[in-house]
Amino acid sequence: MSNMNAVTIDRQTKTAYFGTGVLLGQAYWQLWCQGRFTIPAGLCPFVGIGGHTLGGGYGLLARKFGMLSDNVISMEVVTADGKVLHADSRLNRHLFWALRGAGNNNFGIVTNIRTKIHDVSYNLTLVHKKYELKYFREVFAWQKWVKSNPDRSATSDVLFDGDCVQMYVVITEIDQAKSFRIANDIHKRMPRNETIDIRNSFHFIEMVKYFAKVIDPLGREVNDSSLLGKGEQTAVFAKVKSYYTQRLTTDFEMKTMFKLMNEAPKGTFVLFEMQGGAIADFKSTDTAFFHRKANLFSVMIGYDTPDYSNSDEGVKWMKQFYDETKSLNSGYSFFNLADEDLDNWLQRYYGANSHNLKKIKKKYDPNNLFTYKQSIPLS
Predict the structure, then answer these.
(1) Is the Cβ–Cβ distance between 356 and 372 less than 8 Å?
(2) pLDDT digits (tens, 9 = 90+) for 228-281
(3) What does the DSSP assignment read for 135-192?
(4) One domain, residues 281 and 215
(5) Which DSSP string do the residues of 307-343 spell out, in sequence order?
(6) Dihedral of CA 323/328/332/335: which sign?
(7) What pLDDT is attached to residue 224?
(8) Do residue 167 and residue 276 come from a single domain?
(9) Residue after which a domain boundary falls, among 289, 310, 328
(10) pLDDT of 219 higher than 90
């Protein structure tokens, strides 16, 4: 798939064609250089756009522009019988529906994706605050700001990572005065004892590099060359579990999380990601991506390390955090954060869309050629 890496941009229609082997970093760079455009995709520059889109595709701009799969206009797909099909809202529309949220190696091999692209020629505003872990409960007042349904130009994460807790807010607003009002609103809600307090404006491409360093297990700087997938990429052991939360956490639940964080082995993390905005403009059945309304934030519990040191301990802690916070768990998980340990994965990933997905699977792959541990079953 890595050789399917062509990017074609149409500035007039504000659309782009991507081969499914294109990495997100390559997509961001090409779009930026050819008109300061972007797509609402994820933060890791080394993830392929194909799998990311087909699983839904969450990113920092999702509250403003929707999931990446919501921005797809059409796809080219090779089905089990060797046919090359064009899928859009009119041609092979049921297949098109399924590919946007459940398309990962279930119905065929997607070779090309056409999406909307968005202007980001203006500066984006970043708020980054870092605190000692002992202030976690005060920092998690963040959830009340999330509950207030702030302007959809704002999105935010809270990250527990080792001995600290960090909050990030990105505001994609052309009006800089409005942008700083939103930034000051969240600033006023946070405790004043931060060890890092950044409020600044960046070009979008610089924001991509900034967050690529944040999520790198080794904390390496990301330059133009590495953004394009050039240079050395270190293999890591990584595992994640996820769920969506639909309400504010109770005091008891926060105490439980805080206790677990204080016991966390090196390499573990918990990422709370704001939901809502344009994601919730769609019904749960509009595409195969089911997770729309009512979600307040998502929770990703992870462990990564450049080697396999403490992997048993890290994975054990992840499962403990997942189990002991189950009262927050809505019963649904995000397929792009695939979890092979899930027993009821079909329901957790696809909810009420599971039945239709089985029917579409039977039509386009009746002999179950495209199969793996969590592929859509025929029945």
Answers:
(1) no
(2) 766 556 667 889 999 999 999 999 999 999 999 999 999 999 999 999 999 999
(3) GHHHHTTHHHHHHT---TTEEEEEEEESSEEEEEEEE--S-HHHHHHHHHHHHHHS-S
(4) yes
(5) S-TTHHHHHHHHHHHHHHTGGG--S---GGG--TT-S
(6) negative
(7) 73
(8) yes
(9) 328
(10) no
What residues contact 344, with CB distance under 8 A and at least 6 apart?
Answer: none
DSSP for 44-106, written as a single string: -TTSBHHHHHHT----TTHHHH--GGGGEEEEEEE-TTS-EEEESSSTTHHHHHHHHHH-TTS
The reply to whether 352 falls in a domain is no
Average pLDDT taken over every residue of the chain = 94
Judgement on whether residues 102 and 128 belong to the same structural domain of the protein: no
What's the domain range around 184?
124-328
Q: Provide the pairing of β-strand 15-19 with 109-116.
A: antiparallel
Q: Is 83 exposed, middle or buried (0-12, 13-18, 19+ CB in 10 A)?
A: exposed
Q: 311 falls in which pLDDT band (50, 70, 90)?
A: confident
Q: What is the pLDDT of residues 320-359, one digit of tens each?
A: 999 999 999 999 999 999 999 999 999 999 999 999 999 9
Say if residue 168 is in the same domain as residue 312: yes
Tokens 């990030």 belong to 168
Integer CA distances (angstroms), 244 to 251, 256, 273, 295, in order: 19, 18, 9, 6
Could you tell me if 100 and 135 lie in one domain? Answer: no
Which stretch of DSSP H or E encloses residue 256?
Answer: helix 251-262
Per-residue tokens: 221? 């700087």
Question: Quick one: DSSP state of residue 250?
Answer: P
Q: Which of 34, 21, 35, 43 minimizes the C-alpha distance to 209?
A: 43
Q: Is residue 263 part of a domain?
A: yes
In the predicted structure, residue 369 carries a pLDDT above the cut 70: yes
pLDDT score at 309: 67
Q: What pLDDT is recorded for position 231?
A: 58
Whether 337 is covered by a domain: the verdict is: no
Judgement on whether residues 109 and 145 belong to the same structural domain of the protein: no
